[in-house]
Request: fold
Amino acid sequence: MGWRSKSHELHACHAGMMGKMVADRSLQSSPRIFYGWFVVAGAFAVTFVGFGSAYTFSAFIASLQRDFAASRGSVSLVFSVAGFLYFALGLASGPLADRFGARLLAVAGMILTGLGLAVASLARSLPEVYAAYGLGVGLGIGFSYVPILGAVQRWFVRRRGLASGLAVSGIGVGTLVMPPAAALLIDAIGWRGAYLVLGIFAAIVGGGMALLVEDDPRRRGTGTDGDPPLLDAQPPHPAATGVRDALRSRRFIGLCAASLLGSFGVFVPFVHLVPYAIDHGIPQSSAVLLMAAIGIGSTSGRFFLGGLADRLGRALSLVMMVVGMALAFLVWAMSASFWPLAAFAFAFGLFYGGWVALVPAVVADYFGARNLGTLIGVISMCIAFGTLIGPSAAGFAFDLNHSYMLPIVASIVAYVIAAVILARASRPHVPAL
Reply:
């Protein structure tokens, strides 16, 4: 009996040593640079090119109004149509990405964005701008945005807030770089030439970098956060992992409602801040810099607030972002000169950047990685309606009374209600409806 016991002990010891050798090999064979960061880089490029091109629109408003003898509300509707489409299409692109992969949709989206901008340069009437810019840019970003967000969430758990923030910081950097670049292009070669250059840039750079996007860490022989597959520390999915369970849950309904309300005001500055500044006597060359200030704040928010939220709690941090945007709009309501408006632009960008970074991360925290593209797509659809209504309503309100005070105040009220809804949804042990 003794030799059998010793043999059994030797066998167990041998098995333990073999297991340790397998784990060591897994650690040694894993790449020094976790491929998830390349996915983040691809997502950064897609958001930089897509949203950077979209947010150049404020630099084109004066030219479009002049050439087509159009009102500010009707021109603003071009951006609203594009914004509605690129958020609403998340309802379709999310499930498509869950089925066919994010890379295919991201590459196609960047090519469509480039085509839309290039065709807009040929427009001979405002409806043609609606069709080219609205449909091209709207469809392009719509096919790429939600899929790349879902892809990034699947590569990270512990550093999900940081990774999500870095991925969508492309929006902030694009807002910082692209509008001033577009203004320079308009001055040099006109608005038509500027749209053509932007279109070529979007198709080549955006489409090329989208090739870095992948969905599943296991295809690269790794787990989430760079852990070996056998030691992957990803926690189990939350209870509401199925699409139907998630859609019926009180948390998800709260996220949708808050996203809808918050998005009414979120995109108003991207369209109307530059015209607002010009109306108050600020030169256009300086007014365009306000968009750069939003970009600086947005980039800072995505880089730093996403990582900070990993420590403070991402759900609570999301509430703080919405409250911060409400406070920033209060500053806008009291500002009429460059530096106060620049302070508003930076503060708004900071909290807006954190909001964009945290929404998909909170969805992943609540409902897990399964069907994540579909769930983010539904949230995106809620944002789409706010994007459609907010900027265009602000433009038509200005046409009626030559003031932006009503849309600014309405946005503040919407932010406050959204923050209350998010705070209630973030409570633990929330039962499903």
Summary: Confidence is low (pLDDT under 50) at residues 1-31, 232-240, 429-433. The chain has one domain: 35-425. The longest helix spans residues 160-209.
